[in-house]
Amino acid sequence: MIRIDSAFDAGNIKAERIAGPHEIVLSINKDAHSDFYQWFHFRLSGGKGQRCIIRIIDLNFSAYPDGWPGYRACVSADRQTWRRAATSFDPKAANGTLTIEVTPEVDQLWFAYFAPYSLERHHDLIARTAAQPGVTADVLGYSLDGRPIDRLVIGEGARTVWLYARQHPGESMAEWWMEGVAERLTDPHDPVARKLRQLATFHIVPNMNPDGSIRGHLRTNAAGVNLNREWHEPTAEKSPEVLCVRNAMDKTGCHLAMDVHGDEAIPQVFIAGFEGIPSITDKQLTLLNDYKARLARITPDFQTRIGYPVARPGTANLTMSTNQLAERFGCVAMTLEMPFKDNDDLPCADFGWSPERSKQLGRDCLAAILEIMPEL
Predict the structure, then answer these.
(1) For 266-305, how does the pLDDT look when each residue is reduced to its tens digit (9 = 90+)?
(2) Can you name the CATH fold of 3-112?
(3) Is-contact 232 318, C-beta < 8 A?
């Protein structure tokens, strides 16, 4: 008997109709107190050896309908290795229908918008990294549901670097990126890491939105608030996650900040900057462009041709973290975006953009940081 369930960490799906393996019709629940929806994560049971056709409907009204054409769903039999399934999108069927076709070789198969990064894995990352020599860990504050906002501090250098991820909880590739960063920075044999620890102190917040993560939200916290629109005036009532991190930044200062995200529609890796802030300096802009050029040289997974439109002078949205921090500290701040689909410049038929590529990009981003460190 075919069954669909999602009552687990980051689970999100609603069964609309199940009439056998060829007729599995689902929809995605909205984030709590919000109209955002796009993230899904569910388990299919009872389909072993049968061709299963799964349709997820009403996607023309999702947060980013342009994210569905060309997208392929992530699927796993063991929740360790996530491959891409045969997937198609028809905007004219049932208000936008994503069709996933699989023939499971096992009794249970897991599906997700991107490979999940569980809260349990997050705790393992914090514990494992904090146990390394020279690393300290603390709690900056608590989410609305009472979950800790964890920080790792690595290095003893004079320059201050803040790396933070998952303001939008459905962008799980961002925490896979963080895992790659933490592994490289704590590797005693890595010369890049050793030099970075000498020159800088890294403040790392791997998950800024643990409530949205475990609830299966795409973009918001427990109150339905988009944290990346709270940086100008965060509050304890709506956005304590941002409030505690920004307060900590005010205490340490900041020379470089990177906000790590995923983009639903654009099939490339790119960086968005802070070009529209009121007090932008030539030094800030030069360092931003220098960083992007160096990262493009280090890894073919990064490019500078395609990205978001650049804001006109004086028009930056200061509620967004990258703009707020660049304006607040006069630092180099950037938003790193990875694809939910694949990197079309270097596609991978089996895995698309993956946790492993996210982790490798994190390692490469550190190498580029080292190259611009003397200028910060």
Answers:
(1) 999 999 999 999 999 999 999 999 999 999 999 999 999 9
(2) Immunoglobulin-like (2.60.40)
(3) yes
